[in-house]
Structures are given as structure tokens and as C-alpha cells.
């Protein structure tokens, strides 16, 4: 007989309901009033700021956003203060933000709290003027009140959110040496995925499925414990979902922290049906592919390029080809490219040319007030090379673990730089020639930090 013990509560309710969100005062900072700074052939740059909760850099005090046009974003004489003048994004903790490709719309799904799982979108009008647009919908009945979600690159039409629940399974028909009545068999991992129509604020599809590993891997206690960052392939008929593996001791069913890291894995689903999940495994990279708060995989030139984390040999950029399998001949190791050890890709974003900006830390990073010091690098997916961007100042408290957003505008990539609790600037990196321009000043407050541009 098999007995199951629930580790993570499964979601049982699939009813759809609408959530009512609140917005803050819409007064616009007069210095950068959109009435006097209209968009002319450019785009909005929305800066996101994470307010301190209990500890410096935790971002648990909420998220504020403020929009300026690209011309002002490039002007170092301009100064913006989102913590004083920003729009409060509905979210109990750090919001999970996405922007439209043209920068004119911000998408948000609230994270945790009473409004957790509520989807809303806003038209960007400049300054702190973000106008709630269309209806709202809750995806909490499908993927919980703290969903992991991402906007698919399909013309701003679809969002996808995921969760995984796990159950240890035991056999009580006797054990070696009769030391216990329970014998660990395996850990069942069940994935849930919902797709959301971003234009009309309605649920498109929802599916649940078991995502087992190989019999050999499960016998050793391995299981998929977290999933995130769904990404469409170039053909638009498969969805790739990043995964993190954990392990229990099969003799005791107790979780292990020190164990052999397996090859990086990705779940492959049919799209848009969300059916027929399979798992592919890299022999080049080892570690997790679920990322954290920033998009972790991107389609480029017919393939999907994916970062991994917690790789014993340092983070890799991995390649999944049009055949929906890892290309194990593609070996892009950030340790080797940068001449460092223990590289950990925190967030990254490629341009259409295959040049990419990477936010990372490494074993040599200083220990700042909120965690390991972060850096930016300019990488090339085609040549598998990278170099640190030295023109950006690096403070010991420059913390990028929660970094979420890069603005790609042609060859230019806009990033935010500010240590925890200190002022900084927007920087614009031209990925074609490597030049770096210092832009508008970012005014910070004690214990808080900036989490990107959208």
C-alpha cells in the first residue's frame, strides 16, 4: 500500500474571481511632468523601486514605479525620486512586474497578501501617472496568492504562471532490518500552469500534470521542487519551463542540503494546450534553470537561450534548439568568459543582435548590507564571450539579487545602478559598440533599492 504525505498544499479551488486593487495619488512630479516631456519617437522608461520592509534590501515594504521618457532617462542633470513621488504598485511584497514591448503598458500580478494573485495592467502616462486599464482578474485559485509568472514574447498577448506541489510517497509493507514501518519510495511533483489573456484579462487555459524524474533519480531522492519562467520556442508550439531540483535522503526522507547537482533540466509542454510534459537534461550545465524574479530564458535566432544558477562550475548560458532538446555542443560558461569563479547569473537580457547584458555575482563578491555585491557584464551569445562593464560604479552594497527589469531599445539597454540606501543613476549600455552613458540620477531612501527598468 502506498501512503502519501502532503508537503505543499495543493490548490483545490478553480473558481474565477475579480480582485479590487487600490491605487495611490496620481500627482505627477512637476520637474518631469509628461505634459512638458511628451514621447516623441521614443519610449517610456519605467523605473522600479523596492522599499525596505524590516531589513535593508529585503524589498518587502512594497514597490513603487516612476516613468520618464528615454531622452530624460539619458540626461544626468535629471533627477527622479520614486520613493517620494512614485506610483504604489499593488503588492504585499516586491511586485512581479512586466512591461509591454513598447514600454507603454505595465503588467502586474500582486505577490502575497490579501490581493495576492490579482492581475492588473496600467497605461503609462509619465511620472507617477499609471492609469488602470481594462478589467482585473485573479489567478490565485489556479496558482496561489504568490504566483510565479512571466509575460510570453508573443506580442504582449499572453502571460503564464506556474506552481509545483510535492508529496513524499511511502510504502508501509516492511523495511530492511524492520527499523521503521515506512519506506520512502519517491516524491511526487505535480505542476500547475495557467495562461492569461493580457489583453482581455481572462484565463485562457489551465492544466495540472505530474512531472516525474527518471526512476533512478527518484530512487536517490531527487525531485523537482520549484518551477518558473515559462518561455515560448520560436515555432510557438512548445513552452519551456525552468526547474530546480531538491533531494531527500531516501533512508530517512529528510531533506538534504549537500548533494550531487544533476544536469540542468527543463520541462517541455505542448502549446497552447499545455499538455504532454516531458523533461530534457543538459550535459553541459548543472544546477537550476528556474531563475528568480527576472526572465531567465529568451528566444534568439531560432533557439532558446537559458541561464542556469547554482552550477558548481559557475553559471552557464544554455541553448535549446528547434528540436526542443539541449544543444550540448554549445558551451558558454561565465566563469571562463569573465575569468572568475562561482559566477551566478542573477538576471539577464539579450538584444536582437545576440549581445546581452548580464547581472551577476561571484565567489569574489564583497558581502554588503543586503548580500553579495553585484556586477554587470556585456556578453555575446554568438562568440560565447563576456566582459565586465567597468564604467558602471560598483559599491559594496550594490545588490542585484532581486533585479527584474532591463529596457532594450534597439542596441541600447537601460539599467539601474544604486547601492542599497544610496543614490545612483540610470546607465545606458550600447551593446553594438560597448559604450556606456550615465543617465538620470536615482534618489534613494534608507534601506531601499532599485530593481530595474521596464
From TrEMBL:
Keyword Signal applies: yes
Which keywords accompany this UniProt record? Signal
Q: Which segment of the chain is annotated as a signal peptide?
A: 1-18
PROSITE patterns in the record? PROKAR_LIPOPROTEIN
What's the protein here called?
Answer: Lipoprotein
Amino acid at each position: 500500500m502506498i501512503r502519501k504525505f502532503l508537503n505543499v498544499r495543493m490548490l483545490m479551488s478553480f473558481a474565477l474571481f475579480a480582485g479590487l486593487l487600490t491605487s495611490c495619488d496620481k500627482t505627477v512630479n512637476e520637474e518631469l511632468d509628461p505634459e512638458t516631456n511628451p514621447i516623441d519617437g521614443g519610449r517610456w522608461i519605467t523605473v522600479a523601486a523596492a522599499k525596505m520592509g524590516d531589513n535593508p534590501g529585503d524589498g518587502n515594504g512594497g514597490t513603487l514605479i516612476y516613468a520618464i521618457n528615454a531622452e530624460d532617462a539619458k540626461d544626468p542633470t535629471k533627477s527622479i525620486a520614486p520613493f517620494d513621488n512614485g506610483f504604489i504598485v499593488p503588492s504585499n511584497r516586491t511586485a512581479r512586474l512586466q512591461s509591454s514591448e513598447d514600454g507603454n503598458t505595465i503588467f502586474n500580478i500582486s505577490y502575497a497578501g490579501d490581493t495576492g494573485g490579482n492581475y492588473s495592467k496600467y497605461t503609462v502616462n509619465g511620472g507617477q501617472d499609471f492609469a488602470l486599464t481594462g478589467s482585473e482578474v485573479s489567478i490565485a485559485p489556479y496558482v496561489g496568492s504568490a504566483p510565479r509568472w512571466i509575460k510570453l514574447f508573443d506580442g504582449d498577448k499572453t502571460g503564464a504562471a506556474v506552481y509545483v506541489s510535492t508529496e513524499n510517497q511511502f510504502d508501509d509493507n516492511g523495511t530492511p532490518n524492520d527499523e521503521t514501518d515506512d519506506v520512502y519510495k519517491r516524491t511526487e511533483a505535480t505542476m500547475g500552469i495557467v495562461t492569461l489573456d493580457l489583453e482581455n484579462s481572462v484565463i485562457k487555459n489551465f492544466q495540472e500534470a505530474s512531472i516525474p524524474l527518471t526512476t533512478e533519480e527518484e530512487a536517490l531522492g531527487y525531485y523537482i521542487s520549484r518551477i518558473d519562467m515559462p518561455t515560448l520556442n520560436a515555432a510557438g508550439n512548445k513552452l519551456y519551463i525552468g526547474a530546480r531540483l531538491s533531494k531527500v535522503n531516501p533512508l530517512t526522507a529528510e531533506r538534504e542540503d549537500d548533494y550531487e547537482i544533476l544536469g540542468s533540466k527543463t520541462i517541455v509542454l505542448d502549446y497552447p494546450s499545455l499538455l504532454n510534459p516531458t523533461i530534457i537534461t543538459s550535459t553541459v550545465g548543472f544546477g537550476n534553470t528556474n531563475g528568480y524574479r527576472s526572465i531567465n530564458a529568451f528566444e534568439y535566432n531560432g533557439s532558446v537561450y537559458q541561464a542556469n544558477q547554482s552550477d558548481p562550475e559557475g553559471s552557464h548560458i544554455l541553448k535549446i534548439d528547434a528540436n526542443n532538446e539541449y544543444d550540448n555542443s554549445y558551451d558558454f560558461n561565465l566563469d571562463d568568459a569573465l575569468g572568475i569563479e562561482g559566477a551566478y547569473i542573477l538576471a539577464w537580457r539579450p538584444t536582437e543582435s545576440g549581445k546581452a547584458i548580464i547581472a551577476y555575482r561571484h565567489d569574489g563578491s564583497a558581502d554588503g548590507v543586503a548580500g553579495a555585491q553585484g556586477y554587470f557584464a556585456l556578453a555575446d551569445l554568438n562568440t560565447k564571450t563576456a566582459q565586465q562593464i567597468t564604467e558602471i560604479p560598483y559599491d559594496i552594497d550594490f545588490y542585484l539579487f532581486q533585479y527584474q527589469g532591463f529596457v532594450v531599445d534597439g542596441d541600447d539597454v537601460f539599467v539601474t545602478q544604486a547601492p542599497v540606501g544610496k543614490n545612483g543613476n540610470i546607465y545606458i549600455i550600447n551593446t553594438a559598440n560597448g559604450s556606456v552613458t550615465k543617465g538620470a540620477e536615482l534618489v534613494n531612501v534608507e534601506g531601499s533599492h532599485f530593481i530595474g527598468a521596464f
